[in-house]
Write a sequence for this structure.
């Protein structure tokens, strides 16, 4: 009697335990399959990353430092940035822009950069003024500045003004898209450096 | 209403009672013959349970016994009675040990083959006396299977002695207000001797009714009577071997050690075991009170004296075993029909009891009317008192509380029936889910190993990481920068480690290219904006009258001033897309702003201070000034976060 009841209870317990274990195994299976799916999807990406690290990133970085070591390329550093005003003068000279006094003067370059402490970084600005230059001249100057300094500096606050702004003074274009008028151009060359606490005296 | 059913080898009996537990009434007595388990062509029926079930179903239908409680009677031929003395009387404790006690008391039958019930006869501080009623489990199961197959729900299963006590104690001659009484009941081929006091059964024993001897001549002693019974048994076995073996044939009792004479301790002395007696099958049923009376009438005086002597001996044995302190003052004899009064007198004389009476137990439920007839005319059946007694269980009267419909004989619920297939299914499901889990687990392990291998294959990442910075001049590096050159090890997470290595190298490469800016805002490149604006104005197809006057770009806005011709001819307008020059320029600038949403915000907005219809000779133009709003330059998040709260 009691033994039969115990046997029946044991059977019930067995069934419950079996189903519980089956449920747990089912959940485990689902979780493992999700994990498997994730790993299976990840594997090709990780394999590609391995290839990229070995064949591309490591090679590129190593080659860069080899070129730097051999002075083939110069890395942008604080010294490079400090030479920005002289670079601007050098470009003006190359472009044959006259830096004189009086009406012949075509370019004014602020030699000492204006520094602004932004707490988390330092901001440097150099103002460049081009006077009575043709469209071709200011285009060429700005393009060269961009080419040399785009890695660390930005041309901002650019203003181009035609010297004659009255319509009756503006002659008709000789042909379409042609323009022989003179311009006054002003822009700011801006770059950034580490905050004053870590900035070097060279800047 | 309740119906007791009894199925033996040759027939099925049903007794139905109605009324209440206190005033029960016999409703009907039905008998039906069981056909031999053979097909029409004489072959043995294979599915005997179904064969029996069909006959039971037909019997119940014919006698309209479908409703009410159903109780199955276990006949004396499948019963073993033992009286045990236990050191405790608590039912929970008795339940715990009863199986082991019975195993010791009936050693010849495996305990798992017995359905055990018991009734506590008396209990005191020293323990209790328990009457064990052990039934043959297989006997019950075969009948239950057939009944269930026939669509009969059996509520409980009880034995003959239970039925006798249940019915007998309803009789007024055995009521509680009577003095201590010795009650002898004869039914079928067995007799029961019980000692009653205050309505309680102090002791009860079952023994072979000695009048069987009358069939084959006088048997002077019990041994001779048993020998004669064994002879009859041998004859019955011979007959049974000739007939096809019927699986629901009444048990004739296997050759078993006679426990009665086993010499056990007096406390565990068993009562006579009817199953050992081996009654002739044909006589194990249907020996009603009238037949008994008839046999007694045919006995010689010598036989009668021996009968009385045997019964008296059994009665004395019961009295001796009880060591009753109260003197037995009355003798009640039941089940001997019309001869009861004479035999009661003879037995009383033998037992030296002055007060005696003979009763018919059926008087309680089927009394004799004024016309001398009983309300229900019942056939002369030996088992009618057993059946009526167990039928009373269905009305709520249950003296012994014995019910074999427990354990593996219990009526199964749907869940009980489903347990085995459920257990099988659960095992399969568990195995399946377990195997699937293991497969998935193995695959994950394999993929994790393959992923971990990617740290060294096909390229050894640590080696390549070091090689990237091999030619770097590390002398001027800050501590923070040096930290970035350390290979990032992430223990146990190879995927994260690979990604960290790749990210560190990619970030370094971007830094070398000047792509990475994290510590200051990225201003709008004014030269690029001027170039874009001039390009857009060219896309607007300027006429020979068009003149750009000014472009002013700061970090918030680009302002464009130009003269747009209004003196174009219709043909010139048509050639340039069908729109006037000012509209063409506005459209071109709109297009530019829409194309670069990361730089420009919204559409060109006209500014004030412009002039209309300005002239230069025959040329007429509108002066236009348009403001192109730029996206706001954002401070880097890290810098913003580093700024103290409240500062601007």
């Amino acid at each position: 009697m009691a033994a039969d009841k115990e046997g029946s209870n044991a059977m019930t317990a067995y069934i419950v335990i079996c189903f519980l274990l089956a449920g747990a195994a089912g959940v485990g299976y689902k979780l493992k399959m999700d994990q498997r799916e994730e790993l299976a999807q990840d594997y090709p990406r990780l394999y590609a990353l391995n290839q990229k690290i070995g064949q591309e990133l490591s090679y590129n970085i190593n080659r860069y430092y080899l070129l730097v070591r051999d002075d083939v390329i110069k890395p942008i550093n604080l010294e490079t940035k400090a030479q920005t005003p002289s670079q601007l003068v050098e470009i003006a000279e190359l472009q044959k822009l006259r830096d004189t006094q009086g009406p012949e003067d075509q370019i004014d370059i602020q030699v000492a950069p204006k520094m602004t402490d932004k707490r988390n970084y330092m901001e440097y600005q150099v103002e460049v003024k081009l006077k009575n230059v043709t469209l071709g001249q200011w285009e060429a100057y700005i393009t060269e500045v961009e080419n040399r300094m785009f890695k660390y500096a930005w041309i901002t606050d650019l203003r181009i003004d035609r010297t004659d702004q009255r319509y009756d003074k503006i002659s008709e274009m000789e042909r379409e898209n042609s323009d022989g008028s003179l311009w006054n151009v002003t822009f700011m060359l801006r770059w950034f450096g580490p905050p004053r606490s870590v900035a070097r005296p060279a800047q | 209403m309740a119906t007791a059913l009894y199925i033996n080898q040759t027939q099925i009996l049903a007794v139905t009672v109605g009324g209440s537990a206190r005033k029960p009434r016999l409703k009907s007595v039905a008998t039906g013959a069981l056909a031999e388990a053979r097909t029409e062509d004489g072959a043995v029926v294979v599915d005997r349970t179904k064969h029996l079930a069909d006959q039971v179903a037909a019997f119940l239908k014919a006698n309209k016994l479908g409703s009410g409680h159903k109780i199955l009677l276990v006949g004396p031929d499948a019963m073993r009675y033992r009286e045990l003395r236990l050191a405790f009387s608590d039912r929970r404790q008795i339940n715990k040990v009863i199986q082991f006690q019975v195993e010791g008391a009936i050693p010849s039958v495996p305990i798992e083959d017995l359905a055990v019930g018991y009734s506590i006869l008396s209990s005191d501080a020293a323990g209790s006396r328990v009457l064990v009623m052990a039934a043959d489990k297989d006997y019950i199961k075969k009948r239950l299977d057939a009944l269930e197959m026939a669509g009969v729900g059996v509520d409980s299963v009880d034995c003959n002695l239970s039925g006798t006590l249940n019915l007998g104690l309803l009789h007024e001659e055995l009521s509680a207000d009577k003095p201590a009484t010795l009650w002898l009941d004869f039914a079928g081929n067995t007799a029961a001797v019980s000692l009653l006091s205050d309505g309680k059964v102090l002791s009860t024993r079952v023994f072979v009714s000695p009048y069987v001897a009358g069939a084959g001549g006088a048997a002077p002693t019990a041994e001779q009577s048993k020998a004669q019974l064994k002879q009859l048994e041998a004859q019955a076995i011979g007959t049974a071997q000739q007939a096809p073996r019927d699986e629901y044939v009444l048990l004739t009792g296997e050759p078993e050690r006679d426990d009665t004479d086993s010499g056990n301790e007096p406390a565990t002395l068993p009562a006579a075991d009817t199953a050992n007696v081996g009654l002739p099958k044909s006589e194990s049923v249907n020996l009603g009170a009238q037949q008994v009376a008839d046999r007694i009438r045919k006995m010689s005086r010598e036989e009668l004296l021996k009968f009385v002597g045997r019964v008296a001996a059994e009665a004395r044995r019961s009295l001796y075993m009880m060591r009753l302190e109260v003197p037995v003052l009355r003798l009640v004899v039941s089940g001997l029909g019309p001869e009861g009064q004479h035999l009661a007198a003879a037995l009383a004389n033998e037992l030296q009891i002055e007060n005696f009476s003979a009763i018919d137990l059926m008087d309680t439920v089927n009394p004799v009317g004024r016309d001398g007839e009983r309300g229900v005319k019942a056939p002369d059946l030996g088992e009618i008192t057993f059946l009526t007694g167990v039928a009373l269980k269905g009305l709520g009267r249950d003296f012994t509380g014995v019910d074999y419909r427990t354990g593996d004989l219990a009526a199964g619920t749907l869940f009980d029936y489903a347990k085995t297939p459920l257990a099988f299914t659960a095992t399969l499901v568990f195995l399946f889910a377990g195997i699937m889990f293991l497969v998935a687990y193995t695959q994950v392990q394999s993929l994790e190993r393959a992923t971990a291998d990617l740290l060294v294959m096909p390229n050894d990442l640590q080696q390549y990481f070091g090689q990237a910075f091999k030619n770097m001049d590390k002398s001027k590096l800050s501590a923070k920068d040096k930290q970035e050159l350390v290979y990032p090890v992430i223990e146990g997470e190879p995927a994260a480690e690979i990604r960290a290595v790749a990210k560190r190298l990619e970030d370094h490469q971007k830094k070398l290219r000047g792509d990475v800016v994290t510590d200051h805002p990225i201003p709008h490149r004014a030269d690029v904006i001027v170039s874009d604006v001039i390009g857009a104005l060219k896309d607007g197809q300027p006429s020979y009258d068009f003149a750009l006057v000014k472009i002013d770009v700061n970090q918030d806005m680009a302002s464009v001033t130009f003269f747009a011709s209004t003196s174009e001819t219709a043909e010139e307008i048509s050639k340039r897309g069908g729109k006037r020059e000012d509209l063409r320029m506005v459209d071109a600038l709109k297009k530019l702003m829409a194309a670069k949403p990361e730089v420009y915000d919204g559409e060109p907005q006209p500014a004030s201070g412009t002039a209309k219809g300005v002239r230069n000779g025959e040329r007429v133009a509108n002066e236009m000034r348009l403001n192109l709003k730029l996206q706001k330059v954002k401070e880097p998040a890290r810098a913003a976060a580093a700024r103290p709260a409240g500062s601007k």
Observations:
- The CA atoms of residues 158 and 187 of chain A lie 4 Å apart.
- Chain A touches chain B through 85 residues (CB under 8 Å).
- The longest helix of chain A spans residues 2-69.
